[in-house]
Amino acid sequence: MNDTVTYMFVIDGLCCDRAETAVQRLLEALPGVHRAHVSVVAARAVVDADPATVRAVVLTAALAAAGYPAHLQTL
User: Fold this and answer.
1) Which domain holds residue 26?
2) CA distance readout (Å), 51 to 20, 26, 43
């Protein structure tokens, strides 16, 4: 059974509901991501993922490549 870790990111550039949806879809399409919740109001994403498959640095890089610079926030 795989473990799940929760990552929280502060995301720059979230400006509207479309961006929120796009970022959620982007994150959930990555291998190892079980669930992503993105909030444009909070400028944050909470991601549940398998740490053996995907690490925070990969998620951060994917967000940056899509035009949404982000950094991991300590829970």
Assistant:
1) 5-73
2) 23, 18, 23
Domain tally for the chain? 1
What pTM did the predictor assign? 0.91
- Rounded CA separation 63/57 (Å): 10
Tell me phi and psi for residue 65, to 5 degrees. Answer: -65, -30
In tens, the pLDDT along 10-61 reads 999 999 999 999 999 999 999 999 999 999 999 999 999 999 999 999 999 9
